[in-house]
Specification:
2 domains, mainly alpha
């Protein structure tokens, strides 16, 4: 639901309705009191418009003016953030930081990627062990701490924010490789 936006005429009518009744307080639209009320309510209308804007700006997914404050609170922008980041990407990064539970499960990492605007599938790798199906990848113990993120996006695009956020959330000692399939 969007916040109400009131017109100057609405504020003028509200102001005039607060005045006492009687012949000394005429309510004619072209009268001096109506014209004065129309001027007096302009700052009130500006304040009402700013309050409505603040309601939209208070939520990080729709913020525009307060985006620098949200970023400063969360330690953003990151050093890896590209200089040409769009407003939607910056808002997505703020939301991802706020709603992220700092968990390192694969569904959580995929949810962070989704919040940043990417479709990603993360696959854990394992060391080769006896009983694996023939044709499985052969790897040593180090493969127990490797994740492969398959991202449905063009390799030519800048993915530095996605890579930084996922690497930041991975457990210590876990490597994550990215495969772009778009």
């Amino acid at each position: 639901m969007s916040p109400p936006i009131f017109t100057r005429q609405y504020y003028t009518a509200a102001f005039l309705s607060l005045l006492p009744t009687g012949p000394i307080w005429p309510r004619a639209l072209n009268g001096i009191i109506s014209r004065l009320a129309s001027v007096w309510v302009q700052p009130i209308k500006r304040n009402g418009d700013r309050a409505a804007n603040l309601l939209a700006d208070a939520f990080p997914a729709t913020t525009q003016e307060l985006l620098p404050e949200w970023q400063k609170t969360l330690g953003l922008p990151d050093p890896v953030q590209p200089p040409g980041q769009t407003l939607e990407q910056a808002q997505g990064q703020v939301v991802a930081r706020l709603v992220g539970s700092q968990a390192t499960s694969i569904p959580e990492l995929e949810a962070v990627a989704s919040t940043l605007g990417y479709s990603a599938t993360i696959t854990p790798q394992t060391a080769f062990y006896f009983g694996m199906t023939f044709g499985s990848q052969f790897g040593g113990e180090g493969w127990n701490f490797v994740l492969v993120a398959s991202v449905d996006d063009a390799p030519a695009n800048d993915h530095s924010v996605l890579e930084y956020e996922l690497r930041r959330l991975c457990q210590s000692g876990t490597l994550i490789y990215f495969n772009y399939t778009g």
